[in-house]
User: What shape does this take?
Amino acid sequence: MKKRYLLAVLVILFCLNMSSVFAEPDDIYIGLYVLGVDHYDIPTGTYTMDFYLDFTCRTNCSIENFEPVNGHDFEDYTKSIGSNGIPYYRVESSFVERIDLKDFPFDTQKLKIVIEDRSRSTEKVRLIPNFKRSGLDDRIFFPGWIVTGWDAYSYDYYYPIYGTTYSTYVFEINLKRPFEDALLIFLPVVIVLLIVFFAFFLGLKSPDLRIAIVSTALFCVIMFHLALATRLPPTLGSFLFVDKFMLLTYFILFLFFVDTYVMEFCIQKKRIKLAKKIHSYTKFNLVILSIILYALLFVLFFAGII
Assistant: This one.
């Protein structure tokens, strides 16, 4: 009789163990509502977010069980209980994200909050966005950027060193720069080029003045480019769009400088007819070529080719 009882207990324990092994992972629905973003630093890619966070699940899913992958621990938070009985948290935390400035000043950025469970893998939990309890507050204010929307999603991330896969939740805010930013960057260069273009229509009596204007314009553009570079973090191995624009500007100013120098050389050698011929041919063609090159640069950029 005792053997039968012992056998029954062993069978029950085995069944309980097998049920835990083959049990479905707990689906944890995460709601995240952003109230504000502050201290967005482009050189370091850091920012601070103020948001509400809640978890809906079958088992215990307190905030202490989760951690931000791209930030510090959720240390600064307050807990409240909603009218539906679901606890939610008011959190303020700092995060970091890689900044992609390849398209600057037409770049777009994504500010992310990435969350994983501290210890439970995908065998135990799955993180799922709760879109009904997520979003951006209408009063959110982000100086220097335009908020174009938000998104939330989850995916499985495999850690090869541990041989374990964790469910990862991501909430992201999509940003783009205002058109005024690009205008303020390109407008000084355009003004300098217009001065060079108009100076190029001067007669052959003022070649020294044209050389001085082109040289000064080239110096101003270089100084402007260097000042612009100090505002941005170093980008190893890649050119920003603004760098390509400035390189094209250097090339165009160099063409104007060479043309002006050749005319000055012809005048000094008393070859006035040749100087007039060069001037009549290049004063319009160089301007037209410059406009075509800039137009081609922008067309290739917005087409995603460069």
